[in-house]
Amino acid sequence: MAKKNxxxxxxxxxxxxxxxxxxxxxxxxxxxxxxxxxxxxxQNKFKxxxxxxxxxxxxxxxxxxxxxxxxxxxxxxxxxxxxxGNFSEGFSGGFSDIFSDIFSxxxxxxxxxxxxxxxxxxxxxxxxxxxxxxxxxGCKKQILINRNEKCSGCEGTGAKNGSEFSTCNExxxxxxxxxTQNTFFGTTIRESICKNCNGTGKIIKEKCSQCGGKGYSKVxxxxxxxxxxxxxxxxxxxxxxxxxxxxxxxxxxxLNIKINVLPHKVLIRNGIDxxxxxxxxxxxxMLGGKITIPxxxxxxxxxxxxxxxxxxxxRLKNKGIKMLNREIFGDMLIxxxxxxxxxxDKKTKEIIRNLQKDTAENLYPKYKKFNENKN
Length: 375
Prior knowledge:
By secondary structure, the chain is an alpha+beta fold. 26% of the residues lie in helices and 29% in strands.
């Protein structure tokens, strides 16, 4: 599959700086926004523009894209065996360097280099409930979590004072062992985690009294969460390194926060747009007037023109929700609906009958002629 050229999508050169990328994105996003551009292909073009800026607007993703052709970084190992073409394409070191990287990733050795296995701690997953307004404008929240943190008494080694251990005599400190096995196809060599030291390369002589040799302790931690403006229900915030510490050397897991947004009393969110059904007396629709309505940013005075029809949709530009990580705002769409009284007194009925007769005779001359012929 041909890779997408995000630079061509935004109409910029590969040497464009961050400001040039942002400027090009804003110009195209405004041009192809579905609410502005009614071309059937505008929506697909708008999605392509957003996808391109999602990558090129992020420094790390852009670097990965420039080097590997994709924002995620180096291609998956399995891709080499199904995609055809040159096996070492995109790698300056060729075939041997690819395997060198693979073995290093898995903690093995290549070219005589030994790499100790590194582990990632478990992620912490939780749900955070915020208000409609907090989702619209963004906010900061402090949350209390229980997580495993590296033991300060042994620096995560599990050994007393962080020094009461010796090198494992099975793996000689590498954390991995090679197992030779004879099969029908010949002799194979397989690497696995050393069971003697559990992949640490060390044997504890005396356990740390603070953590009991685990290398970590369960603690309560307060984490500040920056919630960006425009976040929506069920979206997940990932805070790297804020999860559990690993059981041995390595990096901490991540904190994944699923957002739950409480509904507004009268406003409804539709993407970045806000919807409001506004019920008004039929007299207001006939005569017009000024009505105060709620918006995301507070109260707003809305002018109702004379003889507004029920079902009319009025649009307030940029009164919607901010697009996540973009300087683009949605609109507020107000659907006008007429509201009739539940009951009429005798005097009101007479006024309406006279109004009905006068309106028909003044606005519809054929009405008068029809009644004369009927009589």
